[in-house]
Amino acid sequence: MVTATDRSAVGFVLSGGEAHDSPEGTVLLDKIIRVPEQKYILMDRAYEGENMRSKAMEKGYSPVVPPKSNRKDPWEYDKEQRNEIERYFLRLKRFRKESITNSV
Q1: What pLDDT does residue 9 have?
Q2: Which residues form the signal peptide (predicted)?
Q3: Where in the chain are the domains?
Q4: Are 28 and 11 within 8 A, CB to CB?
Q5: How far apart, in whole angstroms, are the C-alpha atoms of residue 55 and residue 84?
Q6: Minimal CA–CA distance to 38: which of 11, 8, 1, 4?
């Protein structure tokens, strides 16, 4: 999922539960149109590979993604911006939980 803020989605791709997220993320990154005032793209650790990060930079974004703990050369990232995407997914999970609870 690509979000513009912690309250709005720009695009998303659904894949099977057994599929890895990174190939779908590459497809999604190809589809989105960059808005000039957007400098950053917030990504989950599943997308922290060199291919995804370099593709994001080619599109003119500065990727905000935490490195995996086993990285030999970890990088710095903006934890405040990272918090935005975490809040967005928390909202989605809460909404899903409330929807399931209310439908029973």
Answers
A1: 64
A2: none
A3: 2-103
A4: yes
A5: 22
A6: 4
